[in-house]
Write a structure and sequence with these properties.
The complex is a heterodimer of chains A (about 110) and B (about 120). Chain A has about 110 residues and is mainly β. Chain A is about 0% helix and about 55% strand. The chains are: A mainly beta (about 110), B mainly beta (about 120).
């Protein structure tokens, strides 16, 4: 079967760094996405990894290891507005469908 | 550009009623998707379309129907609403389904919050 695992909830302090992990077991792999979703709003795109390694984009970085079926999203210099759910999604094959994790709710404390 | 728009924002249905959730995009995207999101759960794909006149089932299509007569519009039809269809429905679009991130990124509408009583 297809499965994506993420921690349900994490708490971090404003100004700190947090790493949100995602592990996946899928029939194939074409790419991995991270999306941010604020409560009551639609998901918005953060990053896309297709090759192993780290992709950096401002305060956010995303890492992928295809051999380990593992990715993480690294958020630096946390701000209160980063309080949101972070969704990991894998494109497992070429039929245009994404398999979504349940999301990690990140709570930022002052 | 308005991006992806959805109507209505909220709706309450009685069991057995039918309705159509509207979705439109003005980005000339080929690919469009319908998802549902239940509390604490990930997005589940209901139906998707790779272009006008072409639709296909996703993971949870039962109880729903779609059509794609134009590139812009992708309505979702609920027939005989059931309490299990209470959820938040998101429509999304992307330029293409595979390739680099610029093409793959899915843009989401604001969602329709549906309650079936």
């Amino acid at each position: 079967g297809q499965n994506i695992d993420q921690p349900t909830e994490m708490t971090a302090t404003e100004g700190a760094i947090v790493q949100i992990n995602c592990t996946y077991q899928t029939s194939g792999f074409n790419g991995l996405f991270w999306y941010q979703q604020h409560a009551g709003e639609a998901p918005t795109f953060l990053s896309y990894n297709v090759l192993d390694g780290l992709e950096e984009k401002g305060r956010f970085s995303s890492f992928l290891s295809r051999s380990k079926g593992y990715s993480y999203l690294l958020l630096k210099e946390l701000q209160m507005k980063d309080s949101a759910s972070y969704l990991c999604a894998v494109e497992a094959d070429s039929n245009y469908q994404l398999i979504w994790g349940a999301g990690t709710k990140l709570i930022i404390k002052p | 550009n308005a991006g992806v728009t959805q109507t209505p924002k909220f709706r309450i249905l009685k069991i057995g009623q039918s309705m159509t959730l509207q979705c439109a995009q003005d980005m000339n995207h080929n690919y469009m998707y319908w998802y549902r999101q239940d509390p604490g759960m990930g997005l589940k794909l209901i139906y998707y379309s790779v272009g006008a006149g072409i639709t296909d089932k996703g993971e949870v299509p039962n109880g729903y129907n779609v059509s794609r007569s134009t590139t812009e519009d992708f309505p979702l039809r609920l027939e005989l609403a059931a309490p299990s269809q209470t959820s938040v429905y998101f429509c999304a679009s992307s330029y293409s389904g595979t390739g680099n991130s610029a093409d793959n990124e899915q843009f989401f509408g604001p969602g329709t919050r549906l309650t079936v009583l």
